[in-house]
Amino acid sequence: MTDTDVAPAVPAGPPMAPSRTRSRAWIVTALLVVFMMINFADKSVLGLAAEEIRQDLGLSASAFGLASSAFFLLFSLSGAAVGLLADRVRPKWLLLIMAVLWSVSQAPLAVGGGLAVLIASRVLLGAAEGPAYPVAQQTTLSWFPNHRRNLPGALIVLGITLGVLVAAPVLTWLINHHGWRSAVAAVALAGAVWTLLWIPFGGEGPYATMSDNDSPAGAVSDDGPRTGKETGTGTGTAGEAQPKMPYRRILATRTWIGVTIGYFSTYWVIAFALVWLPSYLRDGLGYSSAVSTQLLMLFWGLSGILVLAQAGLTGWMLRRGITSRRARGWVGGALLLTSGVSCLALSVAPAGAVTVVLLIGAFGLAGAMGSIAATTIMELAPANRRGGALGLMNAAVTTAGLVAPTLIGSLVDTHGAGGYQYAVLITGALLLAGGTAAVTLINPDRDARLLSV
Asked: Per-residue pLDDT for 222 more than 50?
């Protein structure tokens, strides 16, 4: 075996006291929740200011959709590249560089410029934000063993919801009183402030360089220090060189494929919601701007509650010996299937309370799959391949963000307000496909055993 076949050994440092480890784990988690809040506040600016931007720059729905999709031009590629890099470079510094680039990319747009500056700003921002979710999850979950990852993983997803909930009223107020460029400046400033906090407090945890079935010195869960083996998979032990498994073996597993298809349908819903849902509520369903904002906050708020509920249920199931196939695959698949049925019913439902219930089901239930996808891949992949496995999954999934805004904009230009109904039907079909894939393909216990052979 050559030197390139194994990862370098990590020198063992002095063990942390359990209480200090636990506190540091939750400090890092809290910082990364804020990181994801800023990430999705950046994404939501265009959707919240859609009408103002179109009027100010004289854009058609198709041109605005193109500008929105420009965000995802390099998003997936950078997500894959940095995900692979995260298996070789400390994620702490990758996250820091991302946050700096977020602020730098938005500064020109906050000052002025037209469509060209808008597109260039969104392309660079997308390239910087592409790896954010997988690297944030990798870093957060490196502080926890497998059976304790559901809550911190869900909190990172909750950062998405909180980002939109906080951004919606604050950025809408800025847009209405100071113009849409002031909202861009605000999120750029938030990214700069976060970097100043991450430098002294950020970092990776004791599970960053070892498999789940090894207990690092000083590592703790909510139950306190653990000296025995944790549930999970992987190869090698702390301080040992670990054989590097080819990524193609991980990507060929039914679990990775099922998770990716399921999460793709979720990301399609996220892209729809961020870019076109405000306009759909106003122009497609006839709600006022004020009611539309209230409904948006309701959708995202319930989605956040559901993410936490899913984490509690999945963690409870895992601690009682129920397999990940059921605790993660079946739970996530059921939510996607319910969301898909709600989308299909929404296109024919009468206006009123039924419409609101179906909207909540269609756009509020699918988000939990993001947490399930990350924790499942962390369980499946060996420690020295988690960054790449997460990054490549995220790269495939986020292509939905490139396609959805442009497609929906084209449908609106072609069919007017009726184009939103076609968009909802397409979304429903994708959610049903994603839910079916999650239920039938996800089985990390089985696939981890196959990888270990």
From this structure: no
